[in-house]
Amino acid sequence: MQYDSMTTLVTHDGKFHADDVFATAVLLIHLGKDLTDTDISLERTREKDVIASGDYVYDVGGIYNEEGNRFDHHQPGAAGKRENGITYAAFGLVWKKFGAEICGSQSIANRVDRRVVQPVDALDNGESICKPTIEGVLPYGVSGVIGSFLPTWKEEREGIDDIFESLVPFAKKILEREITWAQDQEEAILKVTEIFDNSPNKQVIELDQKYPWEEVADKYPDALYVIHPQDGKWRAHAIRKGATTFELRKPFPSEWAGLRDEELQKVTGVDDAFFCHNKLFTTAVGSEEGARKLAGLALSA
């Protein structure tokens, strides 16, 4: 999308969060622009006249009006929630309007929303989406990465606008990569689903290349192992019980744990096996036949 005149993006000044950084990145992708372009102006302010004249106003202004490109969520009543209960922040509101156009489909935009946008929105709105299983240890996500660039209490805050602007290209690149991953994931799901459906062996599924298969495997409870080529070798994987757990449906035999090369070959009888993970979820072997043998041995163990 090309514009002949200046386009002004307006967000709040002062302390920033992943929310406003990523919202800026979404708008730049939508516009096909970078902050360095001479026809793009970014204003970080709370001045009402600047806010009123902005082409895109987000995380400031007290208004949510999608048609008018106003994307604040701080006003009374906020700006709505998703069906799962996660409240929209500015990132989510901007993505809601432009995500499908950017990604090429609503399905891919929804995938990016679940993976990237919703966690940022939830944290920005003070909503918990996970519980620690180890006290004092929490996941370190992109909101934490962005937040680490804020000045500490000992550091000067004068350059905070420059820091914000330096983070936007980083966020833009993350989004572009996540979109590519989501697009390719959608394509892989179709291919892998067909392979699972047509596999003569419903417990050991053989792929012709290294597709992302985990999401599909969740829908086939009888499948226990997946084998595929990788970097000139082969891998055999034990399938997890679900997307949110590392517990395996049927781990590789415990006596294989951590073994390599001759030790693994001696225990398995597979002469080109060369690695089994300590956690018994993956093995590496030199050939397709070797991968089949390892999966078969694990199946009968």
List keywords for this structure.
5-stranded mixed sheet, alpha/beta
Offer a concise description of the structure.
The chain is an alpha/beta fold and 301 residues long.
Provide a descriptive summary of the structure in words.
This protein is α/β, with parallel strands linked by helices and 301 residues long. It folds into two domains: 7-183, no CATH class; 199-300, no CATH class. It is 41% helix and 13% strand. It is built from nine helices and ten strands. The protein has helices at residues 18-31, 48-53, 90-103, 106-124, 142-147, 160-198, 214-217, 261-268, 288-300, and strands spanning 7-11, 40-44, 56-58, 64-65, 70-71, 204-206, 225-230, 233-238, 273-276, 282-285. Strands 2-1-3-5-4 form a five-stranded mixed sheet. Strands 6-7-8-10-9 form a five-stranded mixed sheet. Helix 7 (214-217) links the parallel strand 6 (204-206) and strand 7. Helix 1 packs parallel to helix 3, helix 3 (90-103) runs antiparallel to helix 4 (106-124) and helix 4 crosses helix 6 (160-198). The model has no long low-confidence stretch (mean pLDDT 96).
Topology:
Blueprint: E1 7-11, H1 18-31, E2 40-44, H2 48-53, E3 56-58, E4 64-65, E5 70-71, H3 90-103, H4 106-124, H5 142-147, H6 160-198, E6 204-206, H7 214-217, E7 225-230, E8 233-238, H8 261-268, E9 273-276, E10 282-285, H9 288-300
Helix pairs in contact: 1-3, 1-6, 3-4, 4-6
